[in-house]
Amino acid sequence: MLEGLDEIDWTALEHAYGDAGDVPQLLHGVASDDPDTFAEAHFELCSSIFHQGTVYSASAPAVRFLIGLALRPGGRDRHRLLGLVGAMADPDLAYGDSALAVKTAVAAEAGRVMPLLDDADVRVRETAAYLLGQCGAAAAEILPVLHRRADVESEPLVRASLLAAAARLDPLGAANRVDLCLHDREPAVQAAAVFAHLRSGRPVTAAVPEAIISAWRDGTPLTGSVWPRHTLDKAVDALEMPHAAHVLAALADSSRRDVRHYVAHTVSHLNRCRRSALPALLPLLEPLLGDPDEDVRRAAASAAAEAGAAAAPLADSLAAATRFADPASAYVTGADHALKALLLIGDPRWREPVLAAWAAGHRSYTATDTMAHLALDGHPIPMDDELLDAVRVRLTVAVAVASGLGSVRVTDIAVHNEPVHLTHILRGWGAAAQRAVPELVSALGRAPHTAGAALAAMGEAAMPALPALRAIPVPACAQAVWQLTGDAAPLVEIMSALLDRPYRNSHEFRHLLALGPAALPLLPKLTALLANPPDSNVGSIARHQTLLAAATVVWRLTGDAEAVLPTLREALTFDGWIAGSAAALARELGEAAAPLLPQLREALGLRQARVRAAEVLWQLGTDAEQLVEPVLEALRDGWGPGTDAVDLLVRMRAVSAAATLRELAERDRRLIASGSADEIITGDEALRARLRQGVAQLSAEVV
């Protein structure tokens, strides 16, 4: 079972938290019959040797001991141990420098695992089959055993796992069995056959979408230990869009609420992954927006809101969905998402429910948050007297409620955020909202940063707020004083005090950049900071952000490249985001950035910094053709500012990139595939438009 455990020098191996000297203790814990001891040790072991998908040098040596524990008759949760070992060898789940060693170690144990296919425990049989499916090196010995067991197995989930394992080890050899199982009477087996067929790469036949409909009609068919949580979206995502739409339309009529919920979730998933999904799948949301079940309505309305302006054809259904609003609910409801969608498409029918909720003393958190983000993006909703007065009244209430709670708790985050959102809305309206100056002054104690910025945006109308702004010693209020009066002394004084602190908040240093020449009195301290950077938070993002803000001000005040080059040199090799910020400042240096050439070339390998680094290298004389591929790679992997990448290629006249830009613009898979769900679709559509424009511009260069 654990024989030989002490013969391994575990301290010479590593896991997620450092040296693996604690692995023997954890394995002994997993061997315990005490349920609490087992649960704690199992959790710690999984977190250590298989941390968020990464395997380590300690992972492979642990395999044989985990298999030994799984072989114990009557051992606790043996299926969980088999599932862990199988997952560590699963190429869809595991990665890292030790992945091959783990896979080799697991395959070496196949002979000990195969007898478990006849175990009395259904869960053990299921996970044993899953594990064996990862043992490609032993496929010749495993496949006959899998087929023999499949011929006598009666449990649907075990049959599904056996089929999946055989198809993974021998996709073509299992093809006939897979095709037969597409018509199986058991939904789990049908679902496993669907995934096996799709994984094989064979052409998708008409039987596959029909099998999906049959398998998922009565709920999720794959509920065992070895299947991912969401399976419908993965199955449908592999289909051509007409087939996907057919499957989802059929399932949307299900009498089961969970199936209709899966459909709404899958529409959301496909819309965020594939460009062809929006026109094909958005109509499916219409009946789901009026579904009798709140979970279904919430998922459908959320999917509509994610679509942004493209959801306009659903406006009537979205407006009707607001009738389910529950202003007193502590949770985000389907009606909340419907209000958000109406705001994003510019339909005024959001207005009555939101104003009614405010008038009744309730928050409309999602709508208020959406209005705030629209204002921050430079697209504030139109203001009128009724709406302005409603925001003023609600801000007064929100400040009072938030002030009464005292310190911020996670459960109260919506309460504390509401004054911030309302002040953002007022800021977006600027001087037109000057009647709200008294409410903004009252909000300074609760939301000084955003209320101060809102007052500054109102210009001369905010002059009565000056005493209150001067009384609050935070950078945002002092910046408002400077913007309203031209008196930079309060902001300079606050920033000077911040520079004297051992710990510096990097976010506060953005106010330095706003000062411009008025920051001159701070120059000695800023120069000293760059010459002798603090040791505290060494290597941290906040440290680099602070130093880059200081370097930017020093450069703009003095034009002294030598004072800022060390800071830039270090930041360019830290990580992608910091390197990107450093490259942006290096761009300002012009030819004075030449000493940074080695670091800038290295930054081309950092996905978030590629575009900015390439731009500086081009400005310094690097041949544009040498930079085309790194910039295109930044577009392909969906990281960084994609429109900036296209802009740079056009400015470099990189005609050779036109064909790739056209392919990226016209492909079905979205380029932007991560980030906020609310921004993926709209961001990718904007990028697609810029790609098409870039192709036209570069094509014109050829003529």
Describe the 3D structure.
There is one protein chain. With 703 residues, the protein is mainly alpha-helical. Helices cover 64% and strands 1% of the residues. The protein is built from 39 helices and four strands. It has a two-stranded antiparallel ribbon. Helix 10 runs antiparallel to helix 11 (187-200). The longest helix is centred in the C-terminal third of the chain and has 26 residues, at 677-702. The protein is globular, with a radius of gyration of 30 Å.
Structural class: mainly alpha
User: Can you count the beta strands?
Assistant: 4
Helix coverage percent: 55-70%
What general outline do the C-alpha atoms trace?
globular
- Give the percentage of residues in beta strands: under 5%
Mean pLDDT: 93
Number of helices: 39
Largest sheet: number of strands, sense, barrel closure: 2 strands, antiparallel
Strand order of the largest sheet: 1-2
Radius of gyration: 30 Å
The end-to-end distance, rounded to whole angstroms, is 74 Å
- Which regions have little confidence, pLDDT < 50, spanning 5+ residues? none
